């Protein structure tokens, strides 16, 4: 088979790394890819937003399966375009991707179907929004309706902050039309967990649990990012809780999407808060998580390709997933300043040393090649991913490996996996 992966981050490098191990695969292409991916796939210079370009390439190259990484092409309808041309593609179509594309849609759907989520109200008018905020308890959450590259959620501690936030979104339009509506939402406390599931719209196949670390600094301090690191499995997710999530969140949401005439096919990502009164949904995403995918695929024993194909072709029933024993962990190295402004172009050294280490993979995200050297080229630069028999061993391995890698202004969290240790002791 020939496979096309769309995207250029750590998630796509992890997908390429895992897909390359499949005996079913003859060749992998990645559009646009990155220097890490280029070691195992042929990178083609087509942007993720260029749906016609990607379609023409897949058609001409007779690609057997296309796997979409990021949300933007999904929400823009890439799956619909490929389906029209009878090309096999993994991911939800445009109507189903709205589950990530509009938070207002997904909140209303959860409310309608009794799926546990934070209480909320939706506003288009800033005066109305501020009137509501003045009656709320703090902290509270303000969310932009549309896609905002992970930057559209604000935890507001004071009335002033919340008012400024609603004004910035609804009046000053800092998110453009994505911010035509805001959600004012109850603040939930607890531990965050990501539960991803493959579904063909009928069968639901949950993957193992993962915990992401969104805040940029240790101790969950500082602004939220796309994700600073993750580990899997998560001890807080007991078998009972896993069943509870399946029955009360995954099954009803897939059913609800069908009832709305938006049948969902692909990977469904539920971002959950495990509160004292049970799991509640923070958001749904229509794609694999980043860095969740890195740790999940490091633990996955089963060949990924039949899983993706079965999802895309409605044959997921009777498929089981086997996981390697132990714990996997990913620590993301970022450019100084991320998630705000940062500089690019700094040489990365030590990658060759880490290549020799057992149980470790470096998965590239924002990297580029310049004069034959690998340099930084994004906020999240790379993710060092390791596997060990338990969280202690995995953590030791990943942090030892990371010490070999240097670039100017490199930043990473030192406490990825700490919550799992705390729970175990
Ligand atoms: P979302 O994109 O909706 O998942 O939000 C991004 C991040 O904001 C989440 O991963 C949480 O860390 C935080 N967040 C979102 N909604 C809430 C909430 N209701 N209560 C507390 N934190 C939240
Ligand atoms: N790691 C969070 C996300 O992929 O949305």
Count of runs of 4 or more consecutive helical residues: 14
Integer tally of domains: 4
> What is the straight-line distance between the termini?
46 Å
Biggest sheet: strand arrangement: 3-2-1-4-5
Average pLDDT figure? 97
Unreliable stretches: none
How many β-strand runs?
A: 22
- CATH homology superfamily of the largest domain: ATP-grasp fold, B domain
Range of helix content: 25-40%
User: Mind summarizing the main beta sheet?
Assistant: 5 strands, parallel
> Outline, from the CA principal axes?
globular
Write the CATH architecture name of the largest domain.
2-Layer Sandwich
As for the CATH topology of the largest domain, it is D-amino Acid Aminotransferase, Chain A, domain 1
Ligand catalogue: adenosine monophosphate, glycine
Strand content: 25-35%
Rg calc: 21 Å
CATH class of the largest domain equals Alpha Beta
Structural class designation: alpha+beta
